[in-house]
Amino acid sequence: MQDSVVPELHEVAPPMSWLRRWWRRQTPGRQDRFAMLAPLAAVMLFLAAIISAFWYLRLEEMDREQEAVRRDVEYAQQRVRLRLLERQEQLMRIARDIANKDVDPEEFVGRAETLVIQYPELQSLAWIDDRRRIKADYSAPSLPPQQQREAGDVLKPGETETTFLLVRDLQQPVYAQPAGGTELAPLLQLHVPLADQARFAGVILAEYSIDGLLRYGVPAEVSARYAVSLHDGKGRLLAGQTLPPRNTAGWLPSWVAPRTNEFEVPVTPVGNGLVLRGQAYRTSLGLVGSGLFWLVGTLSAMTAWMLIGNWRHTRRRVQAQQALIAETNFRRAMENSMLTGMRALDMQGRITYVNPAFCQMTGWSEPELVGRTAPFPYWPDADREQLNARLDDELNGRTTPGGFQVRVKRKDGSLFDARMYVSPLIDPKGHQTGWMTSMTDITEPNRIREQLSASYERFTTVLEALDASVSVAPLGSEELLFANKLYRLWFGLHTGGHLQMVAQAGVPDQPRTDESLDEVDSFVGLPTGQLTTAQSENAEIFVPELGKWLEVRSRYLNWVDGRLAQMVIATDITPRRHAEEQASAQAERAQAASRLVTMGEMASSVAHELNQPLTAINNYCNGMVSRIRGGQIREDDLLKALEKTAHQAQRAGQIIQRIRSFVRRSEPNRTEADVATMVGEAVELAEIELRRRNVRLSHYVAARLPKLLVDPILIEQVLVNLMKNAAEAIDHARRPPAQRSVELRAVPRQVDGQAVVEFTVLDTGKGLAPEVMDRLYEAFFSTKVEGMGIGLNLCRSIVESHQGRMQAENIYNGADIAGCRFSFWLPVSGAISSAANKDTGVVA
Ligand code: ADP
């Protein structure tokens, strides 16, 4: 369509279409500027046109005036000239008459009188002969006496002499202006020569009043309009008046100011000596003209000023408009980009606006929503009543500041949760025009919240159901950050229990005291990160308030708010403690029983051992009885025999005592025991068995062994057991007498950098078969017919309860097994831990 218009325009009015195209090409800002500047330029052009027109008219008028002045002054000059010429004619006629001798001096005076009376400008007429004597004279009575002449007088030597001589030479009438005193009215003289038969015979001297010449020579209409004056050749005023120069104030530009319009012209017969000047009186035109000029000028200036003011105002408006447009665009962009749905309602509850986010959320387009009233299409049918009530509240201004949650139906029928906030819409006048509602889709936040709360629930359920008490408290504070159900059950909701456990378990906790408050960091220099990961303490404590044994584990952690906190997990281990105590009691009983069993096994050996002293006692007693009966005993022999008997009895008693002290059940009792003593006692007991089995026993105890912190009875039990097993092994192997030997050694050693004392029992039996080796320490495992199979098991328990270790190995002689070595070591400086005291770890 435009294509068809443009060529047409081009054809019809090419400049117009060019202008239009040029106009369209301009930016809006330039268009605005042009639109504003054009009127200003027009006003300026108008002002310039007015000024030039005014100026032109003024020039024209001045020209006209000048012309009129010239014409009128010329006219006046003509009249003055005419008048002078007429007088000159008349005088020349008188002169002719005088030459013709028609006039005598009397006649001359009469005719002069007539002339002076008739022509008032003529002041005097005098007939002067060639010797400058006044032959006749008539003066007007008004002539001052100084200027009057007497007939018969000779002219004063200087008076008109040059003119007189000039007239005599020229034989022509000559006008002259006598140089007279300034106080007198200036006069104009006319010398007309007289001839007497072509001889110079004097002059007729006529004197005009210049003032009169002006008054009577210049026509009245000219003198009414102009200030007419006569000046001499040097410009001196002779008669009449001149106007003062105008525009003295200088408040008008020179080209506008009315100049004095004047013209001057020399009066012809007189020549340059007399100049007629006419000055036009000032007409009202100058005033009117300048008034108009100023009016137009002021109006133009005001128009220009108003245009500039208007232009500035418009410019400010345009700026405001641009700012508004920018703001509107910004808000529109913001509205379009944000994810919050916006909906505006008018006061009647009609939708007046929805933003793209609202449309996108609900799936309804803007035209489908704008203009709708309740029920809105995005209301779920089920919630319609509730939403209607909600809308009523909203329209009545009962809004909830925190917003409210609603369900919203999408166009496809699906529902989502949204939170809506309502705020009033206020127009620029401060009136409320409706309500603005923002809507946020909270399905995702809801889902996350539900997930979070579910996970929190799981977390708390697990923690609550835990059969350990869990508590978290920040360091240096009484606050309890977290406590699970068991903690609350045991200690209530106070940190007391937490702190007590921390203190009892010996975990370094540094509660801030008042003195330490000024410390910046209570763990000065300590990297707390390491603290949280590294320091995890484990201790068993007894809490008297609960009557329970608790296993306390604690560790540092960074709490959710960044504070360093300590978590304490306490497990009730009272039942375990009970079981352990029972087990240790049982173990004790088992050890005692085992010792009894050992003795039971050794019963025949013991009996054999006891048999010797008892037999000796019997022999001694029988010997003494028969010798006393024979009466052949002396007192000395009897005494000797009794002493021997007592010694044997003592020996038997010693054996019994040793056995009794070995099998006596006693509380576990650790003392600083001497290795040599323990070895000695064990050897004494074992020898009973070894002797019966015909096995030699040799023992070696290293000198200056340190004392061991052990229960000596238990260590002796281990040694006796090992030696008895060794003797039995040798017996079973039926070794020849030369190979029947057992060796016991106690020597100091280093195991893993730790000082220990090692006990070794070396036999010459058949050693340990591989299947026996695997089950060696098993309880009730025995290869012997009469064996109980608990000996080695107990031995290992005893050694390990003393932080020692036990091992067995075969000794080879070539490919043959030449015997077996049982050894165990006990630490020298082993601190007795509480665990060592209680933990005998017997599996019954
Ligand atoms: P018991 O002596 O009552 O059989 P032990 O626990 O003392 O119970 O020994 C278990 C088994 O270990 C023995 O039956 C035996 O087979 C083997 N044994 C123990 N000591 C030796 C040893 N010095 N030489 C060979 N075998 C041994």
UniProtKB/TrEMBL annotation:
- Biological process (GO) annotations? regulation of DNA-templated transcription
> What residue intervals traverse the membrane?
34-57, 285-308
Q: What EC class does the entry list?
A: transferase
User: Ranges for the PAC domain?
Assistant: 402-454
Q: Which domain of life is it from?
A: Bacteria
Domain PAS, residue spans: 326-398
The GO terms describing molecular function are: ATP binding; phosphorelay sensor kinase activity
Q: Does the keyword Kinase apply?
A: yes
Q: Which UniProt keywords apply?
A: ATP-binding, Kinase, Membrane, Nucleotide-binding, Phosphoprotein, Transferase, Transmembrane, Transmembrane helix, Two-component regulatory system
Q: What InterPro entries does the database record attribute to this sequence?
A: HATPase_C_sf, HATPase_dom, His_kinase_dom, HisK_dim/P_dom, HisK_dim/P_sf, PAC, PAS, PAS-assoc_C
Q: Which reaction does it catalyse?
A: ATP + protein L-histidine = ADP + protein N-phospho-L-histidine
Q: Which PROSITE patterns match?
A: HIS_KIN, PAC, PAS
Note whether Magnesium occurs among the keywords: no
Which residues belong to any copy of the Histidine kinase domain? 605-830
Give its E.C. classification number: 2.7.13.3
Please report the name of this protein according to its UniProt entry. Answer: histidine kinase
